[in-house]
């Protein structure tokens, strides 16, 4: 079996569902269930003995040691993190604790566990660290996409904490020989995405007739990847990735935020027309995010060359599936819109002046 951390979050949840469907191999899922963790995502596994859920903190060394000793996993796939850039600006402390101290704690527990393994079990063990393209900083319009050799230039408390965790993982490989692989992925989207992030926020706000807040001029570029493609990339790297290597994962799908929001509105106009007119009437420019990275783009040639991985979805197919999923799952959305969610939305958007509407 494998141990997954953060498997009740957006990508971790999709990964657990995918992993069990694709491989049938059992998963122990360690997740603290912060505001971003949601067991509803894993409801279809309720009576499936291949999924063992443990609510707990990756910073709890005793708990991690106990889980490793009890379940003897052949790999750890580490997703658990504080993941939202805006939240890291409002309060960076939890990002340092979970992303840096939590990764350190896991690495130490993994080192002790792996050190005591023998023979084939020792040779086969893997620690897969799931990271982000944000560690590389921001690209100008003319610059080449991020390759694995790009300098680390994190600009937000979130990306700095992820960069620190990547460095720890690298050091545990070089110093202790811990068998690690790291993936640095671009922006994911798809089912079960918490509606604080751009795409699900726009879908949920549009359906509620609320403003669609565009930071700055809406021309910041992200490289979007359908979440199931990220899951298949992780499976490929976990299985055949070279030890100590990093692999950049991306969708070859660079798009400015405004284009993304117009695409979402057009799909909603088609699938759930609003008598008041196109959802794009709700587009509202608001004060920019401090330190907002202008452009991310991933050069995903290494993972294709070495492991034969390429995304299966285009943006057009993936975004349609995503909008359809949100329309078909209003109860999942309603369940995550707790009081804490509403408090976050007012904390993040109250201080931003609306600049203009109707883009
Ligand atoms: P998410 O915020 O949706 O989920 C994070 C999960 O981790 C939640 O279930 C949460 O309860 C859990 N968690 C948080 N702190 C914990 C702790 N101390 N102990 C145990 N569990 C804890 O995040 P996501 O978007 O699914 O991202 C998952 C990973 O992928 C993160 O490491 C993130 O940096 C990375 N990543 C995300 C994206 C993206 O576009 N979302 C892209 C590239 C990389
Ligand atoms: O690149 C990978 C990263 O992608 C991951 O490491 C992060 O965990 C993940 O959250 C994501 O970070 P971003 O900051 O790119 O994602 P977010 O959805 O918050 O924002 C996407 C873009 O949309 C960004 O340029 C900011 C903009 N935006 C976002 C929100 C929430 C808006 O214009 N309005 C908004 O209300």
Automatic annotation (TrEMBL):
Pfam family, one: GDP_Man_Dehyd
InterPro entries: dTDP_Gluc_deHydtase, NAD(P)-bd_dom, NAD(P)-bd_dom_sf
GO terms assigned for molecular function: dTDP-glucose 4,6-dehydratase activity
Domain of life: Bacteria
Transmembrane segments: none
CDD domains with a match to the protein in the record: dTDP_GD_SDR_e (cd05246)
Cofactors (names): NAD(+)
Similarity remark: Belongs to the NAD(P)-dependent epimerase/dehydratase family. dTDP-glucose dehydratase subfamily.
Protein name per UniProt: dTDP-glucose 4,6-dehydratase
């Amino acid at each position: 079996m494998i141990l997954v951390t953060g498997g009740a979050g957006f990508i971790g949840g999709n990964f657990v569902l995918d992993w069990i469907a694709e491989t049938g191999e059992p998963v122990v899922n360690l997740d603290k269930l912060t505001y971003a963790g949601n067991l509803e995502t894993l409801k279809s596994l309720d009576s499936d003995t291949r999924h063992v859920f443990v609510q707990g903190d990756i910073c709890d060394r005793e708990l991690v040691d106990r889980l490793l000793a009890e379940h003897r996993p052949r790999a750890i796939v580490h997703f658990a993190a504080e993941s939202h850039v805006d939240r890291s600006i409002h309060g960076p402390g939890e990002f340092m604790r979970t992303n840096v101290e939590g990764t350190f704690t896991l690495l130490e527990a993994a080192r002790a566990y792996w050190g005591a393994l023998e023979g084939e079990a020792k040779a086969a063990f893997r620690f897969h660290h799931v990271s982000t393209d944000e560690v590389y900083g921001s690209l100008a319009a003319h610059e080449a996409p991020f390759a694995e050799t790009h300098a680390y230039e994190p600009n937000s408390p979130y990306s700095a904490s992820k960069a620190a965790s990547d460095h720890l993982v690298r050091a545990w490989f070089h110093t202790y020989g811990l068998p690690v692989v790291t993936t640095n992925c671009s922006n994911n989207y798809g089912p079960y995405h918490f509606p604080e992030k751009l795409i699900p926020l726009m879908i949920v706000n549009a359906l509620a007739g609320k403003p669609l807040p565009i930071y700055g001029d809406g021309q910041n570029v992200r490289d979007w990847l359908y979440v199931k493609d990220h899951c298949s990339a992780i499976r490929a790297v976990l299985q055949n990735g070279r030890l100590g290597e990093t692999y950049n994962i991306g969708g070859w799908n660079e798009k400015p935020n405004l284009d993304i929001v117009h695409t979402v509105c057009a799909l909603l106009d088609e699938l759930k027309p609003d008598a008041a007119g196109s959802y794009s009437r709700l587009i509202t420019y608001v004060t920019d995010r401090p330190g907002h990275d202008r452009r991310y783009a991933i050069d995903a040639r290494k993972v294709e060359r070495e492991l034969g991985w390429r995304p299966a979805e285009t943006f057009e197919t993936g975004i349609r599936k995503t909008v359809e999923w949100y329309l078909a799952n209003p109860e999942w959305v309603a369940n995550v819109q707790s009081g804490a969610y509403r408090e976050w939305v007012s904390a993040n958007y109250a201080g931003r002046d609306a600049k203009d509407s109707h883009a």
